[in-house]
Structures are given as C-alpha cells and as structure tokens.
Amino acid sequence: MGISRRVVTAIDGHTRYLAREILVGFGLGTSMEDLQAFLARTGGTVMEASETLGVYRILLPENINVPELAEQLANDPAISLAEPNYVYDLPELLPGGTSTGEKPQWIPPSGNGEMAVAVLDSGLIADEALSSAVLSAYDATNPNAPLTADAVGHGTLMAKLAAGLVDPYRTPVGEGVPVVIVKAFADDGSADSYTLMNAMTHAVENSSGPVSLSWGTETPSKFIETAVRYAINSGSPVFAAVGNENTGRSIYPAAYPGVIGVAAGTADGQYTEYSNRGNFVDIIAPGSAGGSQGTSVATAYVSHVAGLYMQHNPNASASDTVAALIEAAGDDRYLSEDEVRHLLAK
C-alpha cells in the first residue's frame, strides 16, 4: 500500500510494534458484514489477509493507540483475537566456533518427496553446494521478488546447518537434507508478526519436515502461537532457539506448547555460559559451528538431525520424531555425537 513502516516502542520499554497496524481474527460465525462494520467503526483499511489462519492486517488512522484498541477489542464478541503487529529482531551470532569448511562426504540430497527442513530466517546467499540442497526459496518480506540475498548473513549459516553442510561435530552422514528457505526478516534484521505468520504457512505448504526457528523474543504473541500450532497440527515438528542471554525468562516461540526449545551446550554436555535456560528447554545441543556460536546454531543443527531422522524413517510423524530426539538426548537433555549416531542408525 506504499505505507512507510514506523516502529513504536511500548511503555514497558522493550515491546515494539508497527505504528497504525493491528492484526485481527474474527470468531466463528462472523461475516463480511462484521468486518465492514469493524472497519467503519475504526476507520481502518485492510492491508492484507491470511485465509489460512483467518487473520486480517489492518491499517488504522493516525494517532490511534493500537495496544489500547487491542485491549478494547477483547470484549467484542465478533473478534476472537486482536494484537498490535509486533516487531522482533534476529539474534546476533556470537563469534567463535569451528571453521566454515564443509562436512566430509556430504552428498547433495536427492530431493525426492516433500520432506525438507524449513528455515525461517534472513534469506540466503547460496553457493553451488547449498543450492543443490535448496528445494525452494521464498521471500515473505517481498513475495513478488525472487529470493537472492541475505543482508544479515544469519539465514545463510542456518541453511547450511539445516542442510548438513556445516555441523558442530563435522560427522560425515552421507546424503544431506533438503531445505526450504523462507526469508521472514527484512534486511535490517527485523520481522513483524504478520510476515512471520505468512512465512510459517508458506513453509508448511511447501515442506512436510521440521521447521527451524533460530530466533526468539520475550514478547508473546497469540498470532505467532496460532501459526506455530498450525505447523505442528500439519505434521511439522517445530524447533526454536531459547536465547543467548542467561536470564531464565521465557523466550517465544520456544516456550509455546508443542515447540521444542533448544539451548546451547558445551562439549561436556553443560549449558554454555551465554545460553538461556528454564523449563522451556527440551534439548541441549552444541552451539558452535561455522565460525559462530549461539542457540541459533544449536537449533538449526537439531532441526537437521530431525530432518535426517525423518529421511531415514519416512513413516515417522512429528510426534514420533520429537520423541525419538528427546529419548536420544536422555535425562541430561544433551544431544551428543554418539547419541546422534545411535539415533540415525535405528
């Protein structure tokens, strides 16, 4: 619509959202008349709509207090959910880790079938090896343009980890894993709820494998939770980073029900100093690879292992895959090299 994006910081000092934008979901039994009545009452205009999730992205007039309006709409019987269009940032990769060399004996995936690891991140700069693993690439920040760049660099490393070109153990595993790349974060490293929701629905529609989310926020969103639930209900296990600050505070989407929260661990199976921790951590994995470290790395690696498991066990469901990984990790929740070998040998 040609509207410039302006980010507003809420009174709490850390929650951010796009000015003048509100996301609205209407309840069962509502009609277009209800939508039109809402637009007339608020002076809003529909910018976009997700038919899959039943969500409208609405532009409001200037000087509307969006959080206040969202609270008021909680009492509207025609509306099931309303929130500001929250803004999130990709985590910075921490320096360190092994070199970026490719894994020995890596073989490009055959690409047979629809199983692939969906990586929702900052985009892709693909070399010849990585290109051979990419099943499809989509720019959710600009759907009409081809995905040819990664201004941040975060997404390219996560794609290599998910495909198996880079991993913390440099363990040769033979055939790599196909990946579906979805750019959900803009060139400045930020994303909004609506774009992330569209990225999620695209990932699910184009892959039946794991979804890798190497990012997180302390700001919960019912709309993002709805998108994650859609992926899980569609048969895709979802893995998410728990954060690179040891605060003990919940990080989303890792803390949403059904999502597998991944923390970063040291070679001896302990949490790294920087890794977050809490009851939302399900698996701990090495977080150092490709010249960088962080729970982002650990998450993409665990997603790769999940993809390999589903490749080796084509009848395994999402719940089967998650159960197998958690059982392999054991009581300490750390997924060691030997445990990965044993898991994939089954």
Automatic annotation (TrEMBL):
Residues 115-330 form the Peptidase S8/S53 domain. GO terms for biological process: proteolysis. PROSITE patterns: SUBTILASE. GO terms for molecular function: serine-type endopeptidase activity. InterPro entries: Fervidolysin-like_N_prodom, Peptidase_S8/S53_dom, Peptidase_S8/S53_dom_sf, Peptidase_S8_subtilisin-like. This is S8 family serine peptidase. Residues 12-85 form the Fervidolysin-like N-terminal prodomain domain. Belongs to the peptidase S8 family. The active site is at D121 (charge relay system), H154 (charge relay system), S296 (charge relay system). The keyword Hydrolase applies. The keyword Transcription regulation does not apply. It holds the Pfam family Fervidolysin_NPro-like. Keywords: Hydrolase, Protease, Serine protease. It comes from the Bacteria.
